C-alpha cells in the first residue's frame, strides 16, 4: 500500500504557494466557472497554459464541450471572487457570475474586469490522470490589469511580501 494517503499528501501540498485563478467558459454547454490553483505556463510556441480540474467539477464538461476557457488570474483584492467560484459563498451558489464584472475577448468566455491577467484560450488537449483532468489551452488573446497577485498557501489567502 502506498504510505502517502490523501490527507498526508494534502497537508504537504498545503505548504506550496500558488496563484489563484478562476477558469471560466461560455458556449452551448453553458456559462460556468471554477476556482483553481493549478494554472501553469506550458509552452511558448504556441503560447499555451495547462490547468488541472477534478473530474466531478461541474465546470469541466462545459469547458470540454465549449472548447474554450479563460484563465482569470486573481489580484489580492479579489478574494471574494475566489470564494464564490469555489462554492464558498452560499448566496451566490447558483449565481457565481453575480460577483465581479465580466466581459469577453476573442473566444467569448468570461473575462473578469480588474483581474491580474486573463488568458483567453482554445482547448488543445485533455489528458486524464487519476482524479483530475489536465487541460491544455492555446492562448489566443490576453488582457492584464492588476499588479498584486492573490496567493494561496497554508490553506489561506496571502499577499506577496518582498523577501
Ligand atoms: C484556492 C483554491 C484552489 C483550488 N484549486 C482547484 C484546482 O486546481 N482544481 C480543482 O478541480 N478544484 C480546485 N479547487 C476547488 C474548486 O474550486 C471547488 O471544488 C469548486 O466548488 C468546484 O466547482 P464546480 O463543481 O461547480 O466546478 C480550489 C479551491 C480553492 C479555494
From TrEMBL:
Molecular function (Gene Ontology), one example: oxidoreductase activity
Protein name: Flavin reductase family protein
Alphabetical list of InterPro entries matching this protein: Flavin_Rdtase-like_dom, NADH-dep_flavin_reductase, Split_barrel_FMN-bd
Domain of life: Bacteria
Domain Flavin reductase like, first and last residues per copy: 13-159
UniProt keyword annotation of NAD present: no
SUPFAM superfamilies: FMN-binding split barrel (SSF50475)
Keyword tags: Oxidoreductase
UniProt EC number: 1.5.1.-
Listed Pfam families: Flavin_Reduct (PF01613)
